[in-house]
Amino acid sequence: MDGSAILARLRGRLGAQVLETHDRLGDHTAVVAREGIVDALTFCRDDAELRFDMLMDLTAVDYLKFPGREDGPRFDVVYHLYSVAHNHRIRLKVRVEQDASSVPTATGLWPIANWLEREVWDMFGIRFDGHPDLRRLLMYEEFVGHPLRKDYPIERRQPLIGPNV
Amino acid sequence: MPERTARELFLGEGPGTGSGSQNLYVNMGPAHPAMHGIIRIFAELDGEVVVKTDVEIGYLHRAFEKDCEVGPYNNAIPYTDRLNYVSPLINNFAYASAVEKLLGIEITERCKYIRVVMSEISRVCDHLTCVGATAMELGAFTVFLYMIKAREFLWELVEDVTGARLTISYGRVGGVKADLPEGFGIKVRKAFAEVRQVLTEVHTLITGNRIFMDRMVGVGALSAEESIAWGITGPMLRAAGVPFDLRRVQPYWAYDRVEFEVPLGKNGDNFDRYLVRMAEMEQAMRMVEQALERMPGGAINVDFEGREIPVDAYVDRGKQGKTEGLLLLPIALSPNLQGQGREAQGRVNVADKKVVMPPKETTYGSIEGLMNHFMLVMDGYGIRPPAGEAYFAAEGANGELGFYVVSDGGDRPYRVRCRPPCLPPVAALPRMIEGQMVADIIPTFGSVNMIGGELDR
């Protein structure tokens, strides 16, 4: 199935939940409303013609300093899906406001979402509602802040931790 | 009186002894001799059976993604070396290809073949390390030494091309750093003969070996459906019988022009993973040999729209003030810069002055070349892809190695995300080892081929 047909099928099923779509550089992308993301992912995984059986990647982008996006929703949570059965790809995105930075979890759909969502929480501070174990993945528990946010300066030092501090 | 279990008999535990049976909590790692890589497996044991585990990663986190955001696009290349440090070339090329996709440029034919050749050599290195280390942890130290010996021959090839063994920084956006050295094909043939001999020896030593098979067959198995749900790609998925290989299903570079097979396993256990990796090494060497044979030579320059430019056309361009490539001052280059001269550059790099550094003779010999060089390295200039986002996936040694690059139109990436191929199998590690014996953790962890640099970034 080619990318535009996938996007058309998504729009046909989800209607107004699909906020916008594009196919720039050959990567077909759909931006989905935050409330509709689990529906969209479930549909992508279970629909016989889409069969996106693999959650290839889940990450986020902080658009705080992106020209033209300074006032818009701060984060994009980005899902890259791949279908082993049909050999096609799609990218889904959810826009997240800074104040309400949480997204419904995808752990019920793919077990790998567990670690990927932990990493996004760790790096960006975006919460995943319903996640069974939302701990930091790469950083340690005492770490202050979320390092991949654009307002986290790269030279910031962290307080020392340990028994002798 | 109920029959006494062995535990009650030997340990004096259980009902009636007052202590009750207790599970034991054991830390494996972060620094453990059998953990090649820094990772902590916190395991709850009932006797020798693993009941529950929690895997903790992040000990090698170096803020790769954050560091990429602070420098120009090509500055991220050395960081990508340190992702999967056993096959750094694939990381270089995959990152460069993601940026090229963002720029919308097509690399030259010769460069595509060079990327195939160097990626496949790296893949053999990676599989040699993985199989060798796993075998060593099961007691087959000879296999490890043999395989490291074979890897040494390949690293000599890598050193010949890139000037370094591990931190090679050979890929560039728009091409590669330098052309292949002279006589490379002959050296490859010699090295591969050695590697093939080692592979035969290793097959003889362990493939049918009773101890090895006892430890590997049926251990750490994951079914095809489960592997897919866990996002596992690469040799581990193929060992479960799923023919997913990006080089085959979504060919990039020159993979559609070389013949190869995709070795498949059946049971998805450690032994099948071992067999798949062994078979893939032979296929990778086959690809290198074909690619070296078919690699086009000669000067292949393309202009901004991808049209080839014949060499004599440069004369007329010179009259129009386009002097790039006309300045033929004889400059003696340092041996360190071998392969980066004018002739070699045209063969391997795209002719886009906004992307690729000028040849060194031009940089040192003319004001235009010097300006071109500065325009690429000065803060605020350099490679500036249009605002947008691109995801490029290459078949890394452990599976799909994806780079998701977001550009805001500036000279440095707005966001670089690396999809590490060994993260999903490590996340699935508890699923693979729970319910098995403590000793099974070691071969299973070995077959996952966890690479800290890539896992923790």
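qc> Residues 3-14 of chain A form the longest helix (12 residues).
qc> done
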